[in-house]
Amino acid sequence: LIFLRHHIDDGLKYEYLTVENPIELWQNLNDRFEHLKAVVLPKALDDWAQLRFQDFKTVSEYNSTLFKIVSQLKMCGEVITEDMLLEKTYRTFHASNVLLQQQYRLHGFKKYRELIGSLLIAEQNNELLLQNHDSRPTGSAPLPEVNATSSEYRGRGRGCGRGRGRRRGNGRNQNFLGPRNNYSMKWQNSDTEQRQNNAGQAQNKKGNCHRCGMEGHWYRACRTAKHWVDLYQASLNEKGKQI
């Protein structure tokens, strides 16, 4: 009697408070709610007939809905076997996955949990493949590191501008620059360097590349992949929209 009263609704506790015989209480509850099976069964059978694997976005959603319907059918006395669960899933695959459905049939699963476990693993692997594809589309170059690009450009500037590089301003390479003179430690074409510096400063007063928007290099030394440059240029052309 204590067990029955502990698990029934609070409203029913007050209604059957005067009943002290547990057999009498059980019979009263059975008479009151026995007709619910006849009410739930038609709806559960219709939900089972309309259930399709292709109508759900994820395997977990389908699995949860299926067991909810199966529990209602079992409560009403209907028997749902493992073969019925497997066949329901196989027959409701999407039409574009006919070959995939046949492959799962050839595995010869005996338990529904084995089939649903394989589907969950395949779904997780497909999500990882799609994420990798979206982060770097097919045929695109790997993304450059900003620090590596910046240091590479600065290293070239020191080697050429100060005469400490391996090519220019070094007396060992006499065939390239000719005899060593007073100007061998300087840039050979100072006018060209001055024009490049003035143009670079005019284009990039804030220190950002006008081609990709990154810091640490100028437009002439930009090595950013083309698809990132296109996204940055599109964001500049459509300032009022979210890119």
Automatic annotation (TrEMBL):
Q: Say which species the protein is native to.
A: Cephalotus follicularis (Albany pitcher plant)
**Disordered: annotated span:** 133-207
Which InterPro entries does this UniProt record tie to the protein? Znf_CCHC, Znf_CCHC_sf
Provide the CCHC-type domain boundaries: 209-223
MF annotations from Gene Ontology: nucleic acid binding; zinc ion binding
In terms of superkingdom, the source organism counts as Eukaryota
Q: What is the lineage of its organism?
A: Eukaryota, Viridiplantae, Streptophyta, Embryophyta, Tracheophyta
Sequence ranges of Basic residues compositional bias:
156-170
**Annotated protein name in UniProt:** UBN2 domain-containing protein
- Give the record's keywords alphabetically: Metal-binding, Zinc, Zinc-finger
Quote the biased-composition stretches of kind Polar residues, using this chain's numbering. 181-206
